Amino acid sequence: MIVNTTIKNQKYRISFDVNLKKFIKRNLNNYYKVAILTDNNLYKIYKDILKIKGLLVLKIKPGETSKSHIVKNRLDEELLRSKFNRNSLLIGLGGGVVGDLTGFIAATLLRGVDLIHIPTSLVAIVDSSIGGKTGINSNMGKNLIGSFYNPTEIVVNTKFLETLPDKEIRQGLGEIIKYGIIKDLKLFRKLESSNVRFMENNKKDIASILKKCMEIKIKVVQKDFKESDLRSILNFGHTIGHAIEKLYSYKKSHGDCIGVGMAIESILAHEYFDLKHEDLLKIINILDKFGLRRVTYNINQVELLLDYMQLDKKNKGSSITFSLPCKIGTIMKIKDKHTVEVSRKTIKKVLIKYLNEFKNI
Predict the structure, then answer these.
(1) Out of 72, 117, 212, 217, which one is annotated catalytic?
(2) Catalytic residue among 231, 246, 252, 270, which?
(3) Is 227 one of the annotated active-site residues of the chain?
(4) 321 and 174 within one domain
(5) End position of a domain, from candidates 162, 194, 221
(6) Could you confirm whether 133 is annotated as catalytic?
(7) Is 219 annotated as catalytic?
(8) Domain carrying residue 57
(9) Of the listed 192, 215, 227, 271, which one is catalytic?
(10) 56: buried, middle or exposed (CB in 10 Å: 19+, 13-18, 0-12)?
(11) Are residues 234 and 348 in the same domain?
(12) pLDDT of 56-98, one tens digit each?
């Protein structure tokens, strides 16, 4: 698959199920230096593949805490000590954390070196590896420091999914459900009728779902790379979801938090906008089908959640910005914009309503 971008003369390739050892060796011949960044857990699994002469292997601790200034600075210095120049390549082998961090290092080291993503999680395959968003976290919130920077290639090996525990598959399903809600009713219905144990579905069905999600994200990003409007629809569920992640100091998984975020933002869309009650219940039901409303909060944490939401990157004033569905498969559009500003007072009412009426449905 060749992906055209809005940046002149920039394209990148998405390759499927390649031999990774041969792929890395080929790139070692094409660049002055090559480094691969992965986390400690993945290194234990794939260390035999990574034992290649001339390849620099960089390792980080798993989890969101590695997306920090401290870790980035350590890796920057290690690459510079290893005499990396602009004819060098940085490869990210891992999930969203590895991809975000690797991308940000590639974007800023020597003002830009080539980047390849090898996503190993379902979230990374269908979402975070595509679209050029890179970044690290601040003490104030998630992904607040970063850049837009495309890879030269994304390598998708679906065999990685076969080794993932159910919890990690569930995280990816949060993003897959999101795509159905924002852009594709047929995808949503397919998920409604699919096996609750996602990897036990027909392999062709799984492949078609993954491809559809990737196509949706690619098309949206091609139209709005820097998130001036349309790309905001990809953040459905994330305004509240990111705040919940921050509330738990990133100790709760991304998909689980986004699942709750989608539920609450759907209630907001129903209570104050045009989402029908029937569609709201379908969204709640599919989130529950795949176990994506496990994370919660209490009444005393509502104000703190609102504080975290006000740090969201989409906000342009004192109100909080959302992209909300008007029906399953479509995000509402008001005055030619795919976003709407909602007051803190209104969001507080919805957060409390969720606790009182929807938490235990």
Answers:
(1) 217
(2) 231
(3) yes
(4) yes
(5) 162
(6) yes
(7) no
(8) 2-162
(9) 227
(10) middle
(11) yes
(12) 999 999 999 999 999 999 999 999 999 999 999 999 999 999 9
Q: Is 109 exposed, middle or buried (0-12, 13-18, 19+ CB in 10 A)?
A: buried
Neighbouring CB atoms inside 10 A of 126's CB total 25
Q: What is the 3-state secondary structure (H, E, C) of the chain?
A: CEEECCCCCCEEEEEECCCHHHHHHHHHHHCCEEEEEEEHHHHHHHHHHHCCCCEEEEEECCCHHHCCHHHHHHHHHHHHHCCCCCCEEEEEEECHHHHHHHHHHHHHHHHCCEEEEEECCHHHHHHHCCCCEEEEEECCEEEEEEEECCCCEEEECCHHHHCCCHHHHHHHHHHHHHHHHHHCHHHHHHHHHCCCCHHHCCHHHHHHHHHHHHHHHHHHHHHCCCCCCHHHHHHCCHHHHHHHHHHCCCCCCHHHHHHHHHHHHHHHHHHHCCCCHHHHHHHHHHHHHCCCCCCCCCHHHHHHHHHHHCCCCCCCCCCEEECCEEECCEECCECCECCEEECHHHHHHHHHHHHHHHCCC
Rg (CA), the chain: 20
Active site residue 235: yes
Catalytic residue among 238, 246, 252, 270: 238
Catalytic residue among 81, 83, 111, 335: 111
Low-confidence ranges of the chain (pLDDT < 70): 1-10, 361
Give the chain's domain count.
2
Active-site choice (242, 246, 270, 293):
242
69 noted as active-site residue: no
111 has catalytic annotation: yes
Res 168: pLDDT: 93
Q: What are phi and psi of 223, to 5 degrees?
A: -85, -20
Query: Whole-model pTM?
Result: 0.88
Catalytic residue among 64, 153, 168, 175: 175
Of the three residues 162, 177, 212, the one that is the final residue of a domain is 162
Joined together, the tokens standing for residue 122 give 């379902």
